[in-house]
Amino acid sequence: MPQINKPTTNMKWDRINTIYELLNRTSDGVTIVQLSKELGVSTKTIQRDLYEVLEPFGAVKSGRVWKIDKKLASDTLNSNERIILGILDEMAKNGGISFYGKAHSLLSKITQQLEHPIFANLDSESLEESHIETFSKLENAIKAKMQVEFEYRKGIFRVKPLKLAFFEGFWYLLCLDVNNNHKFKKFHLKSIANLTLTNELFQVSSNIEDRLKKANSIWFDLDKELFDVHLYIDKDIVKYFERKPLKSQSIVGKESDGSIELVVHITDAMEIMPLIFYYIPYIKVLEPQWLADSVKKQILSYAESLS
User: Is 124 within a domain?
Assistant: First the structure.
């Protein structure tokens, strides 16, 4: 069996990438037990990686050993799947050098070639190695429903992690603050330091899970009640709300000229205000009146500041 360098982290994509590289360059094949010893993980973990992740991309079993069937790997992906992987590869460039290095290495091996006429500009912050490790730990804690502790802006927090959320180009941890009466909080992922997993488990109600699915932006607040915002959408911008609908939007009215009325469920005015200002004058708040008045007041105040 060829010697390999163990990955510096125990992240899933590091391990899968290493397994693929090993299987791809060996002619004799590698057993699950050998992979388990080399990577320092259980044979069940290796089996899961092979059957659930790598088998659809050319990993084949021959007796007790596994290899990569290059023809099968190249034939596995249809054109649509290659396009999707190409887009993911382009998007990964915005995740930082460390993240892209890992993502591109794995994606390029899966597709065999990523020369594609695709450009995707995802306006996102970059993630370095330490941030990816934090991301992985939080992902594991969320799946296991395990409380975590960490430092954040000179404070120490113990929380129940609920979701990792990507809003406006930034990653956040959505959680419940254990030491503050389980208040709903959001922490910028890259600002979290010295994260540790505890052995204390917790449960999450189905109501909380349902509420989190309606979060439109970082301004979402689980501790506030939802309220409806009715928006008039001019025919010239309807297509943008059809292509990229808001999490909780529903169309409640259509006019003959092509304009529509949308209803969006939010918890804070700032969940929708930036969008309203972005599309003015093609959007208008119909209800509630206090929100329409707030938008008008801010527009007038800004106009006065220019005079």
Answer: no
The reply to whether 20 falls in a domain is yes
Total domains in the fold of the chain? 4
pLDDT band of residue 154 (cuts 50, 70, 90) is: confident
Cis omega (within 30 of 0) on the bond before 281? yes
pLDDT in tens, 177-235: 999 999 999 999 999 999 999 989 999 888 898 888 888 889 999 999 999 999 999 99
> Does 116 reside within a domain?
no
Residues 253-287 have pLDDT tens digits of 999 999 999 999 999 999 999 999 999 999 999 99
Residue 297 is part of a domain; what is its CATH number? 3.30.70
Q: Peptide bond preceding 288: is omega within 30 degrees of 0, i.e. cis?
A: yes
Instruction: Annotate 126-142 with b (16+ C-beta within 10 A) or e (fewer).
Output: ebebebbbbbbbbeebb
Tell whether 2 is covered by a domain: no
pTM passes above 0.85: no
Q: What is the CATH number of the domain that holds 20?
A: 1.10.10.10
Tracing tokens 């992902």 back to the chain, one arrives at: 139
Per-position DSSP letters for 161-204, written without gaps between them = EEEEEEETTEEEEEEEEGGGTTEEEEEEGGGEEEEEEEEEE---
**155: containing domain:** 129-204
Q: From CA 85, how far away is CA 114, in angstroms rounded?
A: 8
Q: Residue 118: is its pLDDT beyond 60?
A: no
Instruction: Write the CATH number for 196.
Output: 2.30.30
